[in-house]
Amino acid sequence: MKPQLKEQFSITKKEWNGLLILLIIIALVLAAPYIYQGFHKDTTINEKAFAAAVAELEKANPQKKKAATPTALFKFDPNSATYADWQKLGLTAKQAQILKNYTTKGGHFRKAEDLQKIYGLTKVDYARLAPFIIIDKETAKPAGIVELNSADSARLTNLEGIGPAFAKRIINYRQRLGGFVNEEQLKEVYGLDELKYAEIKNQVKVEPKKVRKININTITFDQLRLMPYLNYKQVNAIIEYRTQHGNYSGMDDLSNIAIIDAQILRKIEPYLVFK
Hints:
This is Helix-hairpin-helix domain-containing protein. With 275 residues, the chain is mainly alpha-helical. The chain has helices spanning 2-9, 13-39, 47-60, 83-88, 93-104, 123-129, 153-156, 164-177, 194-200, 221-224, 232-245, 251-254, 262-268; strands at residues 146-147, 204-205, 214-215, 272-273. It has three domains: 67-141, Photosystem II 12 kDa extrinsic protein (DNA polymerase, domain 1); 143-211, DNA polymerase, domain 1 (Orthogonal Bundle); 214-273, DNA polymerase, domain 1. The chain contains 13 helices and four strands. The strands form two sheets. A two-stranded parallel ribbon has the order 1-2. The longest helix has 27 residues, at 13-39.
């Protein structure tokens, strides 16, 4: 029995040497952090030098001004608030400039909720300012009827029921048309239905003289393709007919194109010139 146990638990010289080397390696690994600290002392930071370096970095890389910290919120009318007022209310320089540009271009706030229309003003900003908004009835009045062919987005948002999204759609459609020849064309703007039109029709007017005309004898396919009343095939037919028969002399020539009916001709006629 003893010889068997001795055989099981005895180790050779080679194995003993290997075990010894392993123990030495483990000891070195455990001692390494202490050895490193002994040879590498932490360098003490020179606070004055560090502060000077930070100042130089900030001078070389100026950042945008942060929002002014309001000392105390106060009652204000957004239609007459100055750039400085907006900053005193805790808005950033960019937000203050956007608001000032809006009112300078003719934008008006009829009620406190209209402030939420302004791009860049967060819900948190509005919730903080809303209790202090006081709108004077006189400053809230838009300056007359809005002319659709010259109004910018700020002016269009003065219309009751028209926010930034609708204002952008109206301007985009106006650019494609070349301008509005009558108010009812607003109903062709995406999402602007009969109910919405009835809500704003008495607030708008159109000056047809401001419409951008199209010279049908020189316009290219790509330019004419923007006209919303014509589809791809109709535009192609107009260009092809001109190539084959020469310049158009009037609407009668266009009526010879089979795929363009009388209704389409009536819609595009106010936009065409034949030079």
